[in-house]
Write a structure and sequence with these properties.
The complex is a heterodimer of chains A (471) and B (313). With 471 residues, chain A is α+β, with helices and mostly antiparallel strands. Helix content of chain A is 33%, strand content 22%. Chain B is built from 15 helices and no strands. Classes of the chains: A alpha+beta (471), B mainly alpha (313).
């Protein structure tokens, strides 16, 4: 299986987007690249030191490898992608409003009822509750893979608390510092307005009763959470307070934060705590991360939670396979972005096919994430395949399967020099009362091991800066 | 600002100040214990160091005898002593980490760098020379942190809370040094004003880096009364109780003005400052230095509690 390379296509050509970069790569002596790479690492370490947790054991997780060769998309490519992302996120929000409201899509037979109602992420608390401004998924991260010059697939929707956007911003920052000459020869669309857009989005969805300058805060599980760095980074860029559960209190269905000047009313909470932990009175009672009474305040319409509670039902891997139908049903349009062809193992015929072709397929747990609980058939040994065969027979509804995709590759600076490595892309889509916005690009993740298709940082993946050429 | 943020800033400064204070005690005690017996020692200096650090009880539980090795271990790296230098720096860092963006990067660098460096010291078996270098390093950490705060922090409530932490802690430390030296250290049969006394008092001054200042201010041989005057009432002396309270009162007033509301903390600080201003050192000695200091330490603790109640919860 030969993968499509974003610089050289099938290997022989040089695609226009990469012309200037190719020239630069050929002219730049290898030692320059090596030098810049070590400078980049130093920069990230420095941010780690001054911003996050460097010095702790978990800091190793923080320092995700960064590849200095950018991934380049042309304006027309991005325009099409963006249209597809807007359409998809619009549909996700309409789907959520529907499954917690009139349930038309279930009545119309677009998606099996049990997939929704028996979904662990479906929150009964949200049924028939009007979320502020009708928006559920304010911040979405849509994982995209590419297989040829024209085909982008959605690999996964992240509708709960997608992370990684701080890497998108830092990657650009480090590239601007290290390669000013490349930015002189490329017109790269900026991404540093993301915090402004996020702030505007959060302000726009404040409860109607809130003042015109609503009080927004970012709720983190705290400094021992692996994404704490990103939480504090974003709070800093947004200019909002970074709060922990214990900083908030609820009185008469109104949320306040404890300040040195007494309680101060809170209008919008960008929460990076999962549903299960957000309010011990409603969800897990053993959670000490959440705020007792928060859901009561939310349902009284006195505070906006972003994202809304219960959005997980839209990014479940089993629901994913119905997304093309969902998009069509709610928008009335053909989906611009395709899904990866997916076998729903809950359907006996599909499962039979999957069982017969395990060595060719990628099998995923419906509720897994982060690249865990996954079988990559072509790279698996016999024992691993047999383990999955047993799991599939025992509980087929817990799995989906997809053909092994030849994910596109991008030139990447590795030990042996510049070589192609597989990549994906996570753009971030913001939905507010005033519409949808999406900064050009997103976070490109790259599988640094030769031939590897797993880009997750927990499995040896790195990141790259993503350039959308504005010309 | 968030109460938790203000609370963390307050305690970060307190812990750094305390770490420095412990290093100073050890440094001065080291010097004292090196003197021939006729001049210094008398064997009580290590016990006194523990008392000055305010942890006699925890020490007595953990060790039998107060000797150089036990005391140095207890006050520097012992993880079971909540106020060891190690734990002070660890607590300072973890408080800072939770509110990272409320600190400037310079302040964070100072604390995080100190934490990494500390682990290198902790692994080493240090001889006296290395130990002295370690103590210097601790004092330097505090200087760098304090300097970064002074030079880089916005002058708003965050800065004021961090300064309040410094001065509440410092006032406590200065008072303790005075008290312990006066009542614990001097053996009963020793003459006040004798040579042992002289070196003990010199040690007090060294602990607060005030030996040179003393000579500049009083141009006299070291006398207990004048030392007490310097460390209690003299506002030119940055560690004196009066100077600490001048600052505490000032920063509390800035908070009160900025928040548009005065409270019990402001009133209490003003009262203590007024007492210090209207008292002379002769009065204090007449009524008993020990009683005065004891009252002061209690009041100072109470003010810390009032600040926490008023702002940090």
């Amino acid at each position: 299986m030969v993968a499509f390379d974003e610089m050289t296509g099938s290997g022989a050509e040089l695609r226009p987007a990469y012309e200037a970069l190719d020239k630069w790569l050929k002219e730049a002596p290898p030692e320059t690249l090596a030098l810049r790479r070590s400078q980049a690492e130093l920069f990230f370490r420095r941010i780690g030191i001054t911003f996050a947790v460097y010095g702790d054991e978990e800091s190793t997780e923080r320092l995700i490898p960064f590849d200095i060769i950018p991934r380049v998309l042309t304006k027309p490519e991005w325009t099409k992608l963006e249209a597809g992302l807007r359409q998809r996120v619009t549909a996700i929000n309409m789907f959520l409003a529907d499954v917690y409201g009139p349930k038309e899509c279930i009545k119309a037979g677009i998606i099996p009822a049990d997939l929704v109602y028996r979904n662990a992420c479906y929150q009964l608390e949200m049924v028939d509750f009007q979320v502020p401004h009708g928006i559920y998924c304010h911040i979405a991260g849509i994982d995209i893979v590419r297989v040829d010059a024209d085909t982008f697939y959605v690999l996964e929707d992240n509708a709960r608390t997608p992370s990684g956007v701080s890497y998108m911003m830092e990657n650009r920052e480090v590239m601007l510092r290290l390669f000013p000459e490349l930015f002189a020869t490329h017109r790269v669309a900026p991404v540093d307005n993301y915090p402004d857009q996020l702030l505007a989005t959060l302000r726009s969805v404040a409860p109607r009763s809130a003042p015109s300058d609503p009080n927004i805060c970012l709720l983190t599980p705290g400094q021992f959470n692996s994404a704490f760095y990103e939480h504090s980074f974003l709070a800093d860029k947004l200019g909002v307070e970074l709060v922990e559960g214990s900083d908030l209190l609820v009185k008469d269905d109104v949320v306040y934060m404890r300040t040195t000047q007494g309680p101060k009313r809170v209008d919008v909470i960008y929460r990076r705590i999962d549903d299960d932990f957000i309010d011990p009175l409603v969800f897990r009672s053993d959670s000490i991360l959440g705020v007792p009474g928060l859901i009561g305040a939310y349902k009284a319409g006195n505070v906006t939670l972003a994202n809304a509670v219960g959005t997980g039902v839209a990014d479940d891997k089993a629901v994913y396979s119905y997304m093309p139908e969902i998009v069509k049903f709610f928008t009335g349009e053909e989906p611009i972005l395709k899904n990866v062809p997916t076998y729903r193992c809950r359907e006996p015929e599909a499962n039979a096919y999957v069982l017969d072709n395990l060595e060719k397929l990628v099998v995923k747990e419906v509720n897994g994430s982060g690249g865990y609980g996954m079988l990559v058939g072509p790279h698996a040994n016999k024992a691993q395949i047999e383990t999955f065969r047993r799991k599939l027979k025992a509980s087929p509804e817990g799995f989906i399967a997809q053909p092994t995709l030849a994910l596109s590759t991008c030139p990447t600076f590795v030990a042996s020099g510049v070589a192609p490595r597989h990549v994906d892309l996570r753009p971030y889509v913001l939905s507010g009362a005033n519409g949808i916005s999406c900064v050009p690009g997103g976070l490109t993740r790259v599988a640094l091991k030769e031939g590897s298709l797993v880009v997750n940082s927990s499995q040896g993946g790195g990141t790259k800066d993503t350039w959308v050429l504005d010309a | 600002m968030l109460s938790r943020t203000a609370d963390a800033l307050f305690w970060v400064s307190r812990y750094v100040e305390r770490a420095e204070y412990l290093a100073r005690i050890l440094d001065a005690t080291m010097r004292l214990s090196n003197l021939p017996h006729a001049y210094g020692g008398a064997g009580t200096e290590w016990q006194s160091a523990v008392a000055t650090a305010g942890c006699d009880e925890t020490f007595a539980k953990a060790y039998g005898e107060a000797n150089e090795r036990n005391v140095c271990d207890f006050l520097t790296f012992n993880p079971d002593n909540p106020s060891s230098i190690r734990n002070c720096l660890a607590l300072a860092r973890s408080n800072a980490r939770g509110v990272r963006t409320a600190l400037t990067s310079e302040m964070w660098d100072a604390l995080n760098g100190a934490w990494l460096e500390l682990q290198r010291f902790e692994k080493k078996r240090m001889d006296r020379e290395e130990f002295a270098r370690f103590l210097d390093w601790v004092k330097n950490v505090s200087l760098v942190f304090d300097g970064s705060a002074y030079r880089t922090m916005l002058r708003d409530d965050g800065y004021w809370f961090s300064r309040l932490g410094v001065y509440i802690e410092r006032a406590d430390n200065t008072a303790r040094i005075l008290d312990v030296k006066y009542h614990v250290l001097l053996p009963a049969n020793e003459q006040i004003g004798g040579s042992l006394d002289y070196f003990q008092w010199t040690t007090v001054l060294r602990e607060v880096s005030a030996l040179t200042a003393y000579h500049w201010v009083y141009r006299e041989a070291v006398k207990p009364l004048l030392i007490a005057d310097l460390l209690i009432l003299n506002r030119r002396m940055p560690r004196s109780l009066a100077a600490c309270y001048e600052n505490i009162s000032r920063f509390l007033d800035l908070l009160g003005d900025s928040y548009g509301r005065q409270g019990p903390a402001q009133r209490q600080a003003r009262k203590t400052l007024a007492n210090l201003s209207s008292t002379s050192i002769d009065d204090i000695f007449q009524h008993g230095l020990h009683e005065f200091i004891e009252d002061f330490i209690t009041e100072n603790n109470r003010l810390g509690g009032t600040i926490i109640e008023q702002y940090l919860q």
